[in-house]
Design a protein that fits this description.
By secondary structure, this protein is α+β, with helices and mostly antiparallel strands. It has a single domain, classed as Outer membrane efflux proteins (OEP) (Up-down Bundle). It is built from seven helices and four strands; from the N terminus they run ββαααααββαα. The protein has helices spanning 33-37, 39-105, 110-144, 170-180, 182-202, 239-293, 299-334; strands spanning 5-11, 24-32, 210-218, 221-229. A four-stranded antiparallel beta sheet has the order 1-2-3-4. It is elongated and about 125 Å long. The mean pLDDT is 81.
Length: 337
């Protein structure tokens, strides 16, 4: 129930005037009839706004959870990358020792040894950089989990697992998102609130007047005063608010479409590019080892094959991180795994 208004007016105070004019004192008690008649729709709009705000808070919690998941996956990949870097360092050192032996025997020029030493330095530098990055990722995840200081973390799980619905059709994902996505729920509730206000704006109820009535005292006489105040429909009647809410719904659907497409692209990259390349590099390395043992391949060819295999495994790792990030984003958009 809207509260009434109370107004006390003084007129003809005669400030700066030599004439004597009786002061008029008016006491008005008013009520907005439009507020009384539109209370059900205004209540419904307020309830939708409350639901929208609760959904936005839920969406923020989902974003925080997604940030933690991404930080976890980044640390998993960073630590695996450090392990592969150590393999590359070992390969570079093995190559340098082998070339140093060839140089001593006069079978290789001094320049080859200098190149091998440079490759060792480069591998050491890359390993050092990746170790620093992994440590930074660990600190980032520790603070994201709520620790007040850096701590050593033991990771018990791998990257983000496959979602139950990630292979579903986009229409099915949109239907699920419409039911569970906090962002879409917030946009939907905003739209409903805007629709309620639009109904009010288009309704004749908005033109019901504000009625004020009360006594007016002039020179000892008491008169009755009645005032009517109504709105003029000159400007926006709620179309822009509905358009904004509708645009937010479309943005949520577009976000879901992008997340779904990102998963498909990442899976394609792994299955058609990164993983086949890694498998091919393993086969080449195994064949080169057999040829080296038979004297049909050089030592440098063997070392190069081992290096190429490790680098291919690094490529698979990067592709898996991309896929894990896409899965985390889809889970966030859907409102949970």
């Amino acid at each position: 129930m809207p509260n009434p208004t109370l107004a006390l007016n003084f007129e003809d105070l005669g400030l700066g005037s030599a004439s004597s004019v009786p002061v008029q004192t008016t006491l008005l008690l008013g009520e907005a009839l439009a507020d009384l008649a539109s209370r059900p729709r205004r209540t419904a709009a307020a309830e939708h706004e409350l639901a929208a705000e609760e959904a936005r808070l839920s969406a923020e919690r989902g974003e925080l959870a997604a940030d933690v998941a991404r930080a976890y996956d980044a640390l998993v990949v960073a630590r695996r990358r450090v392990e592969l870097d150590r393999d590359l360092v070992e390969i570079a050192q093995t190559q340098r020792k082998g070339i140093a032996r060839f140089v001593e025997l006069g079978e290789s020029p001094r320049l080859d040894l200098e190149k091998a030493q440079a490759e060792c330095l480069d591998a050491d530098l890359q390993a050092s950089q990746d170790e620093s990055a992994a440590h930074a990722r660990e600190i980032e995840l520790a603070f994201a989990l709520g620790f007040e200081r850096p701590v050593a973390l033991q990771l018990s799980e791998g990257l983000e697992p496959a979602l139950a619905d990630e292979s579903a059709e986009l229409e099915a994902l949109l239907a699920r998102a419409a039911e569970r996505s906090p962002r879409l729920k917030a946009a939907s509730e905003d739209y409903r609130a805007a629709l309620e206000r639009a109904h009010l704006a288009a309704s004749g109820l908005r033109f019901l007047p504000v009625v004020r009535a009360g006594p007016r005292t002039v020179a000892g006489d008491t008169l009755a005063v009645v005032e009517l105040e109504s709105e003029l429909p000159l400007f926006d009647q709620g179309q822009s608010e509905r358009s904004t809410a509708s645009a937010e719904l479309l943005a949520g659907a577009r976000e879901l479409s992008l997340a779904h497409a990102s998963i498909a692209a990442a899976q394609q990259r792994i299955e058609q590019q990164a993983r086949p390349l890694a498998e091919q590099r393993v086969a080449i390395r195994q064949r080169t080892e057999r040829q080296f043992q038979a004297g049909e391949a050089s030592y440098l060819e063997l070392v190069g094959a081992r290096r190429d295999e490790v680098r291919a495994r690094l490529g698979v790792l990067e592709a898996e991180l991309e896929l894990a990030g896409a899965r985390t984003e889809l889970a966030r958009v859907l409102g949970g795994p």
